[in-house]
Structures are given as C-alpha cells and as structure tokens.
C-alpha cells in the first residue's frame, strides 16, 4: 500500500529529524561547556588530586624532603586535634556572621544606590574600595583605627561607652566579633554590585503595573523586587560564604590568630601548619577535610533552595 | 501644603543625601587611609581625631612608586587582571549557557565539579600548581599567573552567570530559534546583551580577584620584573619596621585603578532591560 | 673503504661539539643569590660589591634576586617543596639549624679552613661569640656572618631625672622600681611587647636568661619548667598586670605601637635596637637630646642580650658550589665586600675586627652613645643559650613562648599553668 508506506516513511523521517535535532542540541551543550572544562581540568584537576594524595601522606619538611604514604593517620590526627575543632567552631561563626552582615549591609546599600542618578553612579564605583584595597592594608588600617592609644574609632566608641581602656581587637572576648564585621565590611561591595545587577534586571513595567494597582513602595519591594533578586542573593551568599570559610589573611595580619587564639580560624591553622610548622601533609589533610565539608554543605544548601524555588 | 512635585523632590534629595552619608560612613576607613597617605612621616599618628592632615604631601606616593619594581608591578597587575578576567568571563559565559539552557546526562556532575573547584584553598594548591606550571615553563611569567587566576575566577563566574541566565525566560530562546538563529547567535546577540549588568558584575569580580591576589603571586613569581602589585607592596615592610607612609600610599594606589575602571563600566551595570524585549 | 664524503658530516659534528664545549668553558658560571632587603641603599651596596667581585672573578656572574624579608620564609618553604632554591642566600640566623637539619645546606667548614690558611689565623675567631651558637652545628660551620644586631635600654634622661634618678637602671628590679615612679602624666614607665610576634620573645628573653632560665634542659627537651623561668614570667607579666607601667593593650602590642608611643614621648624606657633612632628623629620631638641608651639590665644570673643578625649560606642543591662560595667569601670578607654591605644595612658587621666602622657612620652624640651596642654584642646570645641552635627553633620562636606571655597577661592562664602548657607545646614540637 503506497500511502501506508508514505505515512510511515514520513513519520520515521520526522522522528529522524527529531533525533537529529536532539543530537545537535546535545552536541551544542557539550561544545559550549568544553573550553571551561578543559581549562579547569588542566589547571585544577592535578592540584586537587595531588592535594588528596598528600592528605594520605606524612610530609614534615624537617624530617623528610619527600612525602611518605601513611594512610589515614593524618585524618586520625585531625579528628583528635582540639585546635581543629575549636577553629572549626570559630570558622562557622565567622562564616555565618560574615554572610549575614554582608547580606544586610549589601541589601541596604544596593537599595539606596538603585536610584539612577549621577552621584549614585560614582558612589557605585567608590563602594568597591573596601574590596579592592589589599587585605594587609585593610587589616592594619582597622587595627590602628581601633588602637586604644591612637585609634579614631576607638576614641569614638569609648566616648559612647562601647569600648573600655583596651582595644576591642585586644580582648579575646570581642576580637572575633569585630574581625567578623571587618570581614563583612570588606566583602559587602561585592554583594552590593551583584544585587544591583539583579535589581537593574527587573523590568520597569512590573513596578508600573503595581503602581497602577495602587501598591505602596514597601509592597513593591516585598512582592516584586525581593522574589526576583532572591536567587542572586542566595547564590552570592554561597560564593561569599565559601570565600569567608577559607579566609585568613585579615585575621593573620591583625594578630596571627590571637589574642589567646580567639581568632584562630581553620584557614589560620592551615597557614600555620604549612608555613610555620612545615607540616605540608597535615595542611593538605585539613584542606581536604574542609573541601569535603564544604561540598556536603553546598550540596545541601543548593538542594534546599532548589526545593523552595519550585 | 506642598505640591506633589515638591514633595517628590524633597524625598529625592533626602534619599540622595542619605545614600551619600551611608556610603561615606561605610568608606570611612578608606577615607582615613587616603588621608593618612597624604600625611608627612612625622605626623602619621598625632591624635585619634586628627584624621585630616595638618600638611598635605605626596611624598609617600613618590617613595613607594620609586621602590624597586613598583611601576613595573603596576603594569603587570593590569595586564594579568585584564586578560584573565576577559578570558574567564567569556569561557564562563559559554559554560553557563550550556548549564542553563540544556539538559544532558553529565550536567549535574559538571556543575558540581566546577563549583567544587572554588573550594580549593589557595595555599595548599600552590605546590602542585607550581609543579604543573613548571612543566610548561610558565612559572615566574605573567601568563602563568593568568592561567592560575582562571582557576580562581571561573567557578564563581559560571555559578553567577548561570544564575542570572536562568532568570531570562526560555521563550526568548524559542523565539530566536524559530526565527532561524543558531545557538552561537542566540547567545551572542540576544542573551548576552540582556545579561549585560550581570556580565559587568562578573567581569568586575574576576578582575578584582586577580588584581588583589597575593598567595599565587607569591608562590609563582620569583623575579622582580614579573611581580604584581600585592607583592610590590611588601617593599613597605622593612626587616624591623613598617613604613606607614609607603604602606598607606601603596594601598591607596592599588585600590584606585579597579575603582576608576569601574566608574566607566558601571554605566553598563546600570542599564536595565528596556521595555518590550520581554513581551516580544 | 670509507668514502670521504661520509666522513664529512661526522667531522662536522665533532667540530660542532668541540666548538660548543669551548663555548661552555668560556661562559661564566651564574650564581643565583637571594637578597632580602628592599632598601635602595642596601641594594646599591650589593650591586657595587657584585661589580667589584665580578671584576676580580671574571668567570663568575652573580644574579641577585630580591626576596623581601616579609616573604622569604614562605618563598623558601615553597622552594623546598616544589623546587627552585637559589645557590646562595641570606637567612635568619636562628633558622640556619632548621635548613641544616633537612640537609638543604652545604657545610662551609672546609672553605673556612682554606680561608684561615690564606689569612694566617682562624677566621672564626673574628666572629661574635653568640654566632657560634647559630652557625656551628654538629661540629661544622653552615653560615658566614654578615651583620649582627643587639638591643639596648633606651631611656628618657629628662624624665628619669625629674623622678629623682641620676643614672639608668642596672638590674631588672631597678627597672621595675623606676618604671613605677615614672608612670604618670600620660607617660608609661616601661613599654614592653606582649603580642604574638618576634619582639615579644626578643625582649622577654633578656629577662628569662637574666633570671637563669634555660630553653632546653640536659635531655634536649623543654627546660622552662623551673622556678627561675616562673620568676621571670611573673616579673614580666606583673609589669602589666600589677604595676601597670605599660599600656593597656600590651598583650597585643608589638614594636609598631610601642615605637610610636616612644616617638610621641609617652614612654620613659623601652628596649629595642639602633634602627628606631630614625623613626624617633622623624617625629622631631623637643626632648630628642634627652634620649639615651644603656646596657640591658642584669638579672640574678647575669646580663644577657639578644643576638640578631644574618649570614650568607650555601644551598646544597647548587650545581656551582665553588663559584657560589667565592661570592660568599667576598661578600663576608672584612677585606672585601663586607664593610660596604654591612655599613649600608646600618648595623654592626658580623666580624669583630671591623666593628668600629659601624660607629663611624653616626655623628655625635650617637657615635659615643652607640658604643653600648658594641659592648652588648659581647654578651648577646640566642634564645636557647647555652645550647647550640636546634632545627625546631624556627617553628618555636614564632609563637610558643609568646603565647605563654600573652595568656598570662590576658589572665587566661596563671604563670604556673602557662609554664606547664608552654613546655607541653615545646616538647610536642621537639618530639615530632
């Protein structure tokens, strides 16, 4: 039957085109991501694998010029090391504190800068300064500003009764909190820029339509802006959280983890082990454990927010 | 009472003033830094409230600029940051496109792999990174740094760009594809322009990451000619004492170029979507 | 029969090889030298010395690479684990033992012996006594001294006289007595560091050695668990906790802040090296003529100072050791490059024979004043005196003792608890 054959011929041709189309799509998908994967693979994969390898070895520079395999003993040592747990606790406090402050300050400043004026344009660029200033300079600047004899901020805080004779950075009780704020202060510009980009991507019509419906500014903010920048805020928080988790340069420059170890973060402990104690492999063990922790946490974080998205 | 127009104007001025005050408060430590850099050496720390210099001088800037290799470091930093941020933004845009617009088996693994790269702390990767780069002869060369910075910039860039891209409705894609565009054209002429604020934000982030990076530079760059600015700033640290004039001036110099560049680029950050493009 | 034509390419190859070989022989050997100062005066002095050296040794070229002091520790650690060590470098004096233990340095004993023969006397006798504890390890020499430095007690004669003291304090007890009387009118009697930083240990060691405490005991483990050390720690921390002769933030203060206070006229006494003079003079205080120096105070067990400084070392990985040694010899030779280089660093040279030249770089009144520094070099010692340097000192000097000091000052630990945990920390590192 000619027409039967013609139909099935045409049907299979259609499904053939669909199959071709699907294959084309798949090829395009891989093609677009390939360059990035190659670059990252070449540069990042070997260091990552080497780091994992190192974490299973013993490499104390003072006793051996080469790493020696010793299995899980590094991890045993890690788990029984009280400094690791204390640092981890502080790092969690630090990370959460930094991100929460960055969100709060970032949102506030981004909202203010969202109005398109010439001044706001300049301010949007100037707001970057804390982030682009070198960490060592930021650390030493804040240390002087809070110095009990010379610090401008300390003077002001003292007159407001918020600080005593000793610098806030010199007391174990307050040092970590203050440095967490400094860390957030440094990272806020990035949050501001990211949020601004998201805010600027909201089409005006949405606001106009809401105005027509009689919505107030607060309602516009809560029902239109917030949901649309939520994804950016969530993603940025993860990025900044990871950066904060590993940070150590500001803390190190201010007091090497002091006073009395009150600001010893896990990154500080890592640095100490690598450069001062010359325990190369223990540092790798710490790093790999941090990596695993972060991966698990990120996976959970992303999953939670993906659920809420849908 | 006041006409609506006057009231809006007052609110406008009020809000603008508030913005300036808030930003100024936020920037206070930076302002202190710049003012201190303008003080002569003997006056560095007079009195807590003596923030404004009694006499202004540019000698600190002159001194740090004239230290060994500082101007060259400036050029090196500029080059390394510009090239690496450009390359990583482009590559990340391509990768984000793949992750955002397509479904395929390995998608989740790739996604996790890329994000996972961000979780490598600089200090520990340094040793194997040096070994890798030495194999291709790129240690102590700006190109080696550029390549290393891709590792730092791309994971975050992909993550960010994918997020912004996901917010662009798929209908736009379909409209373009029906009109006969291929994927490259779709990305280049339609999606990317819509994402301009995001691309600017990501590019800025990448640039600044490379600009201020210290640890990789410390490990990879050994000769004075190839140094970047964070390394050159170490000139302010003597064996026994820190030269505050040079340190603050150096910090001020380092902070300026990205900010100045951004004044130019923030125009693109601010340009939002024009009406009609969505309805289209 | 071999045709001539076939021989030509072979002949060409032989000629080429000979030519290359000859070229190699004529090419100068390059010695890579890591230098830690970024100061222009010092860099210039080294460049001059290198030029002179290369003129005298045309077959050797010295390539100076500037690695700032603040980075050198990280750079060396990275180079040790990933490769890239230089042929010659400076090194912190008490860190020599660490790299020696790793086998990373080449011994200089034979070179020294040859040098002594040349000169006709033992060159090592020209070294300062404290340097023996830094560079003589396991019977061999590992560094050739370049510069040394020590600290003294800086004091404000006008303030002391106003409080009724005609002479500077000579013992630690007197320091305390003076300081208490001097702490008034916005001035602190005796500023001491307590931060987790090198100056804290460098000042405190004067005290603990003075009280008779020892870093190591006979078995080579922690020697601080003694009444003498406890006394020293008690004394030092009481200055802050009980006598309040030092600022409120002493537990986190290092040289930086104390020097600023001194320059502002807010400290009556302060221990540090000769280099602070420039900073104080830059502040142009009216009392500059009242600023004097005195020897480090003595304790019940004697008078001890801190010996700083640095040598040049030869790295074991170097493929050009003999050439590298020639450079080291010239640079540390009192008859060669040493006077110029040491003078540029504005610190005494590592050789007693030319020590006076350092004083000549100063005008009066400092020229006579600073003799106190030279006198101090005679009793300046390392932290672990009277034992030779240990490899782990590089790790221990960073924060082990300072943590104890800071913890007591912050009242996180008592003197007793701090001493016990200090020895725990030290022994943990020593037994690794």
Provide a descriptive summary of the structure in words:
- Chain A is mainly alpha-helical and 310 residues long.
- Chain A is built from 13 helices and 2 strands; from the N terminus they run αββαααααααααααα.
- Chain A has one domain: MetI-like (MetI-like fold, Orthogonal Bundle), CATH 1.10.3720.
- In chain A, strands 1-2 form a two-stranded antiparallel sheet.
- In chain A, helix 3 packs antiparallel against helix 10 and helix 8 packs across helix 10.
- The longest helix of chain A has 54 residues.
- Chain B has 13 helices and no strands.
- Chain B starts with a helix and ends in a 10-residue tail after the last helix.
- Chain B has 2 domains: 40 residues; 210 residues, Orthogonal Bundle (MetI-like fold), CATH 1.10.3720.10.
- In chain B, 70% of the residues lie in helices and 0% in strands.
- With 432 residues, chain C is α/β, with parallel strands linked by helices.
- Chain C has 19 helices and 13 strands.
- Chain C is globular.
- Chain C starts with a helix and ends with a helix.
- The model of chain C has no long low-confidence stretch (mean pLDDT 92).
- Chains A and B meet through helix 1, helix 3, helix 4, helix 5 and helix 6 of A and helix 1, helix 2, helix 4, helix 5 and helix 6 of B.
Concise account of the structure shown:
The complex is a heterotrimer of chains A (310), B (280) and C (432). With 310 residues, chain A is an all-alpha fold.
List the helices and strands and how they pair.
The complex is a heterotrimer of chains A (about 300), B (about 280) and C (about 425).
Chain A: H1 2-55, E1 57-58, E2 68-69, H2 73-79, H3 82-113, H4 118-126, H5 129-132, H6 135-145, H7 152-159, H8 172-200, H9 204-212, H10 217-246, H11 249-255, H12 266-276, H13 280-309
Antiparallel strand pairs in A: 1-2
Chain B: H1 4-26, H2 28-37, H3 59-65, H4 70-101, H5 107-117, H6 122-135, H7 142-166, H8 170-178, H9 183-194, H10 196-212, H11 215-220, H12 229-232, H13 244-270
Helix pairs in contact in B: 2-13, 3-13, 4-7, 4-10, 5-7, 7-10, 8-9, 10-13
Chain C: H1 4-26, E1 29-35, H2 40-56, E2 60-66, H3 69-82, E3 88-90, H4 96-101, H5 109-119, H6 132-135, E4 136-137, E5 140-141, E6 144-149, E7 152-156, H7 157-162, H8 172-182, E8 188-191, H9 198-210, H10 227-241, H11 255-263, E9 267-272, H12 276-282, E10 291-294, E11 305-306, E12 308-314, H13 321-331, H14 338-344, H15 356-360, H16 366-369, H17 371-377, E13 380-381, H18 393-409, H19 415-430
